[in-house]
């Protein structure tokens, strides 16, 4: 059996295992204009059903991204990620999910929390179980393949970081007069050996994704790396017509002083 066939054969089991960990019950609500509450206009929502779900594992604890005043009370806004099954309901931007029940594996403190969708990876949920396809002579055009991979990965990183720049090493080098105080550097390289030697007929290659978080403060650099890791880890991305394997965290170095800034590194791996 080739590596490609082995991965295709294993995907249903991996997917079933992931979905078995989705022990939250999420009630989904689609925005539907405004309605009149107690002497004021409030958002209206249309119920769209429920799905199992799981709060996405993070590289750190929940982080308060900002505070808002509600009725004179300061309340924290938390950033998180939700996993839902690949088949079935796919929410839209600004939909909200309320945690209405928790299973044995979930934190009971999540009960009643409500999350607003600010970004989606539809290509992931729609293609997570798609069969892998050969790519002909894709190994012979590594530079083009790197560009294709970055074209998919960078938007995911940018969605996780908002206005913080996501740059390639070349872009960092060409910024004038100097790179910004805060940014994330992203690069990919093809890892040697392994798949090609075991199955020379299959167009599957191993890749390493390098993330370098740079910040004016130690907290900024750490936050950039944590947010992007949460956005990418365990996901499958579609590059051209082929799905990657689930992206896995390989190494993580602590954030330290780097000239007049702070920086840290993380590497993730996947095959394509």
Give the tags.
alpha+beta; STM4215-like; 5-stranded antiparallel beta sheet; 15 strands; 272 residues; single chain; 6-stranded mixed beta sheet
Order of helices and strands: HEEEEEEEHHEHEHEHEEEEE
Largest sheet: 6 strands, mixed
Whole-number average pLDDT?
77
CATH T-level fold name of the largest domain: STM4215-like
User: How much of the residues is beta strand, in percent?
Assistant: 35-45%
**What is the structural class?**
alpha+beta
> CATH class of the largest domain, anyone?
Alpha Beta
Distance between the termini: 17 Å
Number of helices: 6
Helix content: 25-40%
Taking Cα atoms only, what radius of gyration do you get, to the nearest Å?
Answer: 21 Å
Anisotropy-based shape: globular
Poorly predicted regions are 57-64, 122-141, 194-202
User: What's the total count of β strands?
Assistant: 15
Q: Tell me which CATH architecture of the largest domain applies here.
A: 2-Layer Sandwich
Count of individual domains:
2
Describe the structure.
It contains six helices and 15 strands. The model is unreliable at 57-64, 122-141 and 194-202 (pLDDT under 50). The longest helix has 20 residues, at 142-161. It is an alpha+beta fold and 272 residues long. It is globular. It has two domains: 8-120, no CATH class; 127-271, STM4215-like (2-Layer Sandwich), CATH 3.30.2000.20.
